[in-house]
Structure formats: C-alpha cells, structure tokens
Amino acid sequence: MIINTYNKTGENAELLADLNSEYRDRRKDAVKRVIANMTVGKDVSSLFPHVVKNMQTEDLEMKKLVYLYLMNYAKSNPDLVILAVNTFVKDTDHVNPLIRALAIRTMGCIRVDKILDHLCEPLRKCLEDDDPYVRKTAAICVAKLWDLDQERALENGFVTILQGLVSDSNPMVVANAVTALAEMQESSETKDIFVVNVAIMNKMLAALNECTEWGQIAILTSLAEYRPLDSKEAESICERVMPRLQHANGSVVLSAIKVLMILLRYINNDEFVKGLIRKMSPPLVTLLSSAPEVQYVSLRNINLILQKRPDILQNDVRVFFCKYNDPPYVKREKLEIIIKLCNDKNIEQILSELKEYASEVDVDFVRKAVRAIGRCAIKIDEASERCVNVLLDLINTKVNYVVQEAIIVIKDIFRKYPKRYEAIIPTLCQNLDSLDEPEAKGSLIWIIGEYAERIDNADELIENFLETFLEENSRVQLQLLTATVKLFLKKPSQSEEIVHRVLQTATEEIDNPDTRDRAFVYWRLLSTNPQAAKAVVLSEKPPISVETNTVSPALMDELINNISTLASVYHKPPTAFMGNKAYSADAVKKAAAAE
Amino acid sequence: MASAVSAIFILDLKGKVLISRNYRGDIPMSAVEKFLPLVLEAEEESQAPAPCFTDDGINYLYIRHNNLFLLAITRKNSNATTVMLFLHTIAEVLTEYFKELEEESIRDNFVIIYELLDEMMDFGYPQTTESKILQEYITQDAYKLEVQVRPPMAVTNAVSWRSEGIRYRKNEVFLDVVESVNLLVNANGNVLRSEILGAIKMKVFLSGMPELRLGLNDKVMFESTGRAPTKGKSIEMEDVKFHQCVRLSKFENDRTISFIPPDGEFDLMTYRLNTQVKPLIWVEALVENYTGSRVEYLIRAKAQFKRRSSANNVEIHIPVPEDADTPKFRSGIGSVQYVPEKACVIWKIKQFQGGKEFSMRAHFGLPSVKNLEDADKRPPMSIKFEIPYFTTSGIQVRYLKIQERSGYAALPWVRYITQNGDYQMRMPDSIKASKMAPI
C-alpha cells in the first residue's frame, strides 16, 4: 500500500472530533471513515489514541474495525499499544466465544513486543476454552507467538498444550493444531516440535474424514512427513488416503496424490502399486476441468509425476489437447505433456494435432508446436520420417517464423539420424533468404557445412551468407567459420580462397574474442597439420537424445515431496527461491549438487 | 512445509490496490507495487505470464476475475493449489455477498470484506470459507446491540456446512442431473475428444439434520454389491468428485452416497466419463474463399440423438474473416445473425428435433486488398444447446432416501438435462483459396 502523507488537516480535525463525539453513531461512522482512508492508502496513524478509545464497545462491527486499525498501525505506535491491552484481555474473557476468539486472533497479529507480555495468560485460557471456535483460533495464535518469540512459547508450555490439541475431540481444532505445529517444526532448531509418529498419524487419519477441506489439506501435508516402517504399513495408509481422491477440492486431491507418491517408495507389492497408479490417473485428468490457474499448477505437477512414473496416464493423451480458448500458459504446459506421452501408437494423432497448432495465431505457441514435432521425431525413431514430412509441409507454408523454427528442429533431427534425410536439403536451402533469426541461420549453415560434400553448390551458399559476415550475430559467425572450414576440408579445390578470406576477416576485423580465437585456432590447425584439422573438425558427434526428463533424479525426489507447492510448479528446490537464503553460498552449492 | 500466504490483495487492472489484508507481516506491503510491472514484463518477453512467479524471494500467485486481480504473496514454499483455489473461493464468496464482484462493490463494502478476509484466513491459513455459514454471522445488516452474534456451531462442527434448527413447512429436494458435453472435432471431421462432465445439483429445503442416501445406476456399485441392475443399463463413471458433505470412506467401501446436505443449492457430485457416442449435434462447414472478393459458407447441422428428444436454443457460431462485409444468408430454419465485433455468424434454432438435418448458406464480400502480414486466425465453430429430459451417459437416479429424526415425509424431484460444454469443431480449409490466389 502506498502511504501518502496525510495533510488534509481539515478532514483530520473533523475525524478527531467525531471520534471523540458523545454520540455512538457518529463515533462509529468516524471509525469507518478512518478505515476507508486506510484502505485507499492514506496515513491515519496519527489518530491512534482516539481510535483505540473506541475499542471498548459491545458493538461487534465497531470492535472489528478498531481491531483492524490496530493491526495496521500498532507497529507505528508501539508505545501506545499498551492502551489497548486492557480491553483485549477483557475481551478474551467475554461471554461470547466470537469475541473471545476475535480478541486472541487480533492480539496475535499485533507484532509488537509490549503485547507479547500480556498475550500469554489469555492465550493459555483460550487454548483450554470450552468452545472449539476459540480453541481452533488459539491454536493458530501459538504459531503467531512462536514466529515472534520461540523462547516464550516454549517457556510457557504452549508447545506441549498444542501437541495435546492434536488429540482434541473437534476436527477443526486438530487441523489447526497440526497446521501450527507443522509450521513451528519447520522453523524450530531442534526439529522435535512435531515428529509424526504412529500415534500422531493415527489421530490425524481419524480426523481426516471429519474436517473441512482446508483442514484435510493440512493433515495430508503432515501425513506426507510420516515414514512407514514397511510395505504393509504403507499400503494400509494408502488405503485410508485413497478416498480423498474423490474430493471436490483439487488441492485435497493433489495433497492426497503427494502422500501416495511418497508412500509408493516403500511399497514392494507390485500388484498394489499397479492398482494405485491406475487409481491416480482419473483424478489427475479431472483436475484439468478446474479454473485455468489451478489447471496450470496441476499440469506442472502432472509433468513431474510423469517423469517419476511414466506408466501413468498412458492412454489419456487426448485430454491434453489444447482448446482454442485455453490461456497461453495452459497451452504451453499441455504441449510439454503431449510430448511426454507421445509413443509409436499415438504419434499419428499427435502429429496432426501439432500441425493444427502450428497454424494458430499465437507466434510463441506456434514455435513451440513446431519444436514439439522435432522432439517427437527425436524421441520415436519409427515416427521420424512422418515428423520430417510434416515439417516439410510446414516449410511450404512459407510463414516466416514457422520456416525458421522448422529448420532449427530439422538440424536436431539431422544430428540424431545422420545421413537419413539428406534428400530434403534442397528444400531447406530454398528458404535461405527468409531466414533472419540467428538460431535458424546458424542451423542451416551447420547443415550446409555438415553435408557440404553432398551439396553441389555448397560454396555458393556459404558465399551467400558470407556477404554479411561482419554484421552477423556472433553465433552465426561461429557457425559460418566452422562450416567454411568443413567445406574446405571436404572440397579443398572449390573453397581455398573462401576459407582464406573468412579466416583473415575473422582474425583482423572482428573484436569478439570467441570468434577471433576460433579463427586463429582453425588457421593454425589448417596450416600446420590438415590431417589433425580433419580429425578435430569432422569428428563423429555424439548422438543427441530428447530430454523430456528435465529434472535430475536427486531433485526429483525432493520435488515429489513438494507436490502441489510452489517448488513443484517451478520445478526448483524450495531453497532456490525462498527468501534471501537463495543467495547464500550454501544454498547455491546445494542447488548445484542437486542439478 | 508451511503453506501460509503473507498477504492478499484485490487490485484493479492498472495494478491499483482496492483492498488488502496483511496476514503475517513478513513482507513489506509495498511488494505489491512490483506485481503488475512484473506481469507486463513477462508479457513483453512474448512468454505467456504464468499465474505464479517468483521475484526477489517473493512469490506472487494471482487470478483474474472480471476486471480485477486477486493476488496472494508469500515468502514460503506455499501450497500453490491451495492458494489458487482459495483466491477463487474469495471471489465466489464475495460474489455471493454482493451479486457482482467488481471495483464498485468492493469500495461500497470494504468493511464487510475486511471482516470476511479476517474470518476466511488466519495467519495465512484458510479457515471457514463456506459462504452460507459465513452469512450466518457476518452480515451486511448493522448489528443490533441487543442480539449478540455467536459463531454458528457449524463453524467447528464435523458438519461444518449445515446449521442446526433449520425449519421448512414443506420439505422438498430438487435434483438436477446436468451433463455438459465437451467435444473437439478436427478439420477432417475426426473426433479428437469427447467427454461428459456431469453434475448432480441439489436444491435442498429440508428441516433439521436429515440423512440422505442417493442410489444411482452406477456399474461399480452393482458389481460390488453383486446385484445386477433390475432394469436398464448401468453406467461406468471415470472419476467422481463429491461435495465435502459426502462420506468418502463410505463411498470407497460400498459405493453408497450418504450425506447430511447443506441447506439450499449446492453441487452434490460431479463426474466425468469418456464416451464413444456420436456427437449430439454435428455440424459440417464448406468454405469457398475467393480471396479479394467474397467468401461463401455452406453449413449443415444434424441432430444425432433420438427422435423423441429435441434440443432447445441451439446456437451455432461460425467464425468469419474479420474484414468481411455485406452479409447475405439463407437458411431452412431458425434465424441467422452477423456479429461483426466477434467476427462470427450466429445461427439460432429454437427447437431442433432429433434425427433432423438443416442447412444454411452465408455469403460475404471481402475487401480487395488484404494485408498479408495478418495471420489468419482460425477459431473453431462452437455450438450451444440444451436437451431436456435426456442424459448422454444414461445415468439415472434410482432412489433418494431421506431420513430425519422427526420422521417427516419429503418429496424428491428429479430432472435431467444435457447441454454443451466446450463444444468445438475446427473449421476446414477453404476449398478454392489456393486456386484463386492473386499472381
């Protein structure tokens, strides 16, 4: 919120008067106006004592407004907060549980030391309150206190009381106690606040059936921390978690999937595993009927799950076909999954789908679709020819960016299947003039160099590119250098002059050290030992394979533990993006090791 | 793995904060100023900005609702699914409170929105979000001092969706079985995807705490109980999702759908099934495009369901070039309308009987000069319809048992309807376009 200096003294004075009015309605109206000002970002902190005066009231709405004001401005008036303490403490004794809970909830949100001194006694009372609404609110309040002062929470025995609340008779209280304990465990140094053992696990499983959707998520999240002793136990937990897959809330479903995916590691009963995998597919597909943002998160997670368990969703590729009106971020993720699910049985269908995408308007998506065709070709040997034909069709559309993208992927196909599709080179070369992107240019130049001996007019083509050598992007320059040298090694008679000219230009007129140095290296090689040059420049290249698995096995396990969280969306370990820790040397090292 | 969010904002499309709530105080609220610039930056890089991203240790998760952004920020590795769903829940609850959630309704109701935000989330963790229950103790009427509002029992009860002491003079239940058909057909007329998203929607006007049991012609249930369906067929649902009132473990055990319903309207269950049935309404398009002069369409629509059913309010949307002009239509039935702002023609048929087939011709002029740089958008045709008293899946309600302590008799009413979901058919290529291209 943008804080403007509040300089309309006129309005301020008026508010001041009204806040101190003898009429209740006028005071309430004034408090509302103060909050309205706060909402639009005006600084009304100077009215602090006058607003707080109105806190002691039986009017619930008024009380809530003053509380809200307090939460916002307590930090800027830490000394005056003490004025509110009395009413707070009194309210935690109110006959109405709503007010008791409201008071303890708000006190916990006032992050000022002075309040903490007065928080502990009321909190203790509220944790043992008869009304579950108050207890569930107090449970979260312990986490608030912990966040500010762990010592104090421990000394006052709140942690022990909270641990006791895990056995509370009310499921909502259990859920909030679990939520609070899980958070505290994470930030505790001793890591002994909340260790999920058999007893706790059973309590949580019992509460699972009864609590609200959000409570179920909290419980499932903590269940995921439990490590079963053997396959049998893991199976029985799975049985009890499985009904959650039928819940209407997608987050409950994904949290259940997380628990199941983790438990799978412990299960050695193949039949059971198979059955479990089969049961997980339909709920994952149903997640695609949610709101687009939820779909996005789900798709990122499905991507992960597929890398871990490629046998899932095998027959469901059609559900990932893009709808015309899907948001771009959903289309992009669906495309990734289509490639992952592509196999020799469904490739025909997928190719016709990808071809369709390549004629859409969204340029970025079109490029990705074209690239996907290339990735399918590299992934499935038997389908490569069909893929190449589709790419040739696309090149014939002459749509500039489609052509360029197609040439880039064809280069990769050439690398994967050397000497198989040379016949299409002439078609590629016809599009020479339409190339203006460095990557596409570089790709075609690479192809020309690599197949120079088969292309009759290779020297002319190279010559053609060389006209603009100095203006080119360094990436293209490097490719041109290499291609020219390849040409010379393959057809020395035609190209001696060209190679000489290129090397000279590169060494004398180009400042980019990469290009210049490579030119020097080539020159030295060629002049001292042409045989060695051949061995270096024309050596066998290692075959490429399609990398549909983008996550390393070590990182994978960590991400599976984090299904449904941001880490699973980014495909990065939590340490890589959490707080400032991301930049500490330690975290960077750990992340590097994980990569 | 704490999933808490630090703060929630509602912003307009220019990025101005309309209202916000800071739950944890661990991120300066000024972080929101970077939100829209970051989204725009991502857009500029031609990358479709994802609905969540991280910047400088702060994670932004957001949804669009009407002309608003609902944004959550967090420093932690929060549960992204929960956060997204929670943002949608806020939008739903506020919509139920104010009919329309938009800039104006937020400004007019800021006090109650603060109250709701305070009740729905605590320290960044979702709490009570059931709007019916919230409405019982957070109301728009100013409080009378004499009556002190108390938290409804339901807030913390195991039955958190229904309050006790509800009374109706006439106890009734309405069941609507609504099936939406999602269909995607490619330009060659091959069905790429065909699925049914079904929902059993209930309107419950029952007194007390009634126990309900619903019986369907569900194949798995018949198999597990060893009973063959007495008459008619049984259906196999691929994935079933239940409202939180349904006892999931009971369903898992013996496929019984038993529950204490919330009061009023809600979706009891949703299900999904892939079908191999013929698309209910089939549309074929023939396009002749004489670039630079005119374009002609021949549309044929066929109702491929039983003769005794008929589809109501059928609308067939046919995309046409954005620069088309002087429309002319001829159709055997219904009315045809050109909607230039959507670049489409809408053919409306009030009642379309099963087994029938109709056709429509459209003719447009095209400008003689066309900017070749403009890539042709190729949106698909989309079709809207409703078929009452009919379900594609054949799902049937076998019984709905209602039991309440007081032993009243209640009447269940059941209706069936099938309608379009995402029902799209891709346009074929024009047949003469290439021949007529200018040299």
UniProtKB/TrEMBL annotation, chain A:
Annotated ranges, domain Clathrin/coatomer adaptor adaptin-like N-terminal: 9-528
GO BP of this protein: intracellular protein transport; vesicle-mediated transport
Subcellular location: Endomembrane system
SUPFAM superfamilies: ARM repeat
Main location: membrane
GO molecular function annotation: clathrin binding
One cellular-component annotation, GO: endomembrane system
Keyword Transport: yes
UniProt KW keywords: Membrane, Protein transport, Transport
InterPro entries: AP_beta, AP_complex_bsu_1_2_4, ARM-like, ARM-type_fold, Clathrin/coatomer_adapt-like_N
Keyword presence, Protease: no
Similarity remark: Belongs to the adaptor complexes large subunit family.
Role according to the record: Adaptins are components of the adaptor complexes which link clathrin to receptors in coated vesicles. Clathrin-associated protein complexes are believed to interact with the cytoplasmic tails of membrane proteins, leading to their selection and concentration.
Protein's name according to its UniProt entry: AP complex subunit beta
Species: Lobosporangium transversale
Lineage of origin: Eukaryota, Fungi, Fungi incertae sedis, Mucoromycota, Mortierellomycotina
TrEMBL record, chain B:
Coiled coil (residue ranges): none
Ranges where the MHD domain occurs: 170-426
Cellular component GO terms, alphabetical: AP-1 adaptor complex; cytosol; endosome
Compartment(s) where it occurs, according to its Swiss-Prot or TrEMBL record: Cytoplasmic vesicle, Clathrin-coated vesicle membrane
Main location: membrane
InterPro entries associated with the record: Adaptor_comp_med_subunit, AP2_Mu_C_sf, AP_mu_sigma_su, Clathrin_mu, Clathrin_mu_CS, Longin-like_dom_sf, MHD
UniProt KW keywords: Cytoplasmic vesicle, Membrane, Protein transport, Transport
Pfam families, alphabetized: Adap_comp_sub, Clat_adaptor_s
SUPFAM superfamilies, A to Z: Second domain of Mu2 adaptin subunit (ap50) of ap2 adaptor, SNARE-like
UniProt KW Transferase keyword: no
GO BP term (any one): Golgi to vacuole transport
Family designation: Belongs to the adaptor complexes medium subunit family.
Protein name: AP-1 complex subunit MU-1-like protein
